[in-house]
Design goal:
By secondary structure, this protein is of the alpha/beta class. Among the domains are: 3-101, 434 Repressor (Amino-terminal Domain) (Orthogonal Bundle), CATH 1.10.260.40; 185-303, Glutaredoxin. 36% of the residues lie in helices and 7% in strands. The chain contains nine helices and six strands. The protein has helices spanning 17-27, 32-39, 43-51, 60-73, 78-92, 139-167, 227-235, 249-260, 294-303, and strands at 185-186, 219-220, 239-243, 265-269, 277-281, 284-288. Strands 1-6-5-3-4-2 form a six-stranded mixed beta sheet, sandwiched between helices. It is elongated.
Amino acid sequence: MDEEQDTFQTPNGDAKIGQILERARKERGLTLDEVEQATKIRKRYLVGLEREDHGALPDAVYAQGFLKTYAKYLGLDGEELSREFKEPSRERGVAYGTPHGTPQKSEPDQPPIAPPGEPSSSRGRTSPKPVLDPRPGNKGVGLLQALLVLGVLVVALIAFVAVMTQVFPGLGTGEPPGEPPEGVKSFKVSSREHIEGDLDYTQSPPVGGNHNPVWQNCGYYDEPVRDENAVHSMEHGAVWIAYSPDLPQQQVERLRDLAQNHVYLLVSPYPGLSSPVVASAWGKQLRLENASDPDLERFIRAYMQGAQAPEIGAACTGGVGSPR
């Protein structure tokens, strides 16, 4: 018997249907497991279609349905492949599912085999429809997954609120940003160019102006930082707290705690200060006698990421310096 009886060809006879399916799948970088997951067609049937292994496939009606679904998923013409799949068998008198052209038993003797979990086709059924292989879900597992997702969302929300309260310290405190303490001095900043090298500033510590192209990483430092880098940080919305090197250690620790609890806070010693503590933001400055003064935190709430900064939200990490 001619070998052509046992193969499926495209209309021009260039390739078998199985080869067409396999080539299309591999061109899309898909594995059989991925196709099974997407189409719900069991892997053994996908292998049977690609290998044209008739014995591995279910009843012809279901197999044609699987073929259409598989072809459509790969972007092929499922209807055309399905016609080429069944018409040669009818023309040659070869029953589908019979290897090497061996005649198949009549329907009364051998009813069609349906895939596991699917109803068998009956003799009186005139228009059977292909049904994908359903997989009953486990309701308990689904509920557990939903609870886990909900838990993750709650944790993410809590983390988001925590970050926002650090970036915007007045959030939720009942004392909104924008209400600075008394004694804050304002300065007009007319230029903010990026310039390399040492620069001279009118205020000490400076409150703005031209600055180094690289900002100072926010955080606590136990050594002085360069004015030029700190000014760049304030341009990004940071508050810079400079303290006298002889400030009592207890007050230094308080400043360190503040720096660790705020994303946009820079703390460093500053030799030659006229006040023990000086808080600066872009164009703003407040001089204090100690680190415990409530006005310090009011200054932070008012000006950290405040409207006075030219580049609110720009990074205060990824620059220069290693905070303690």
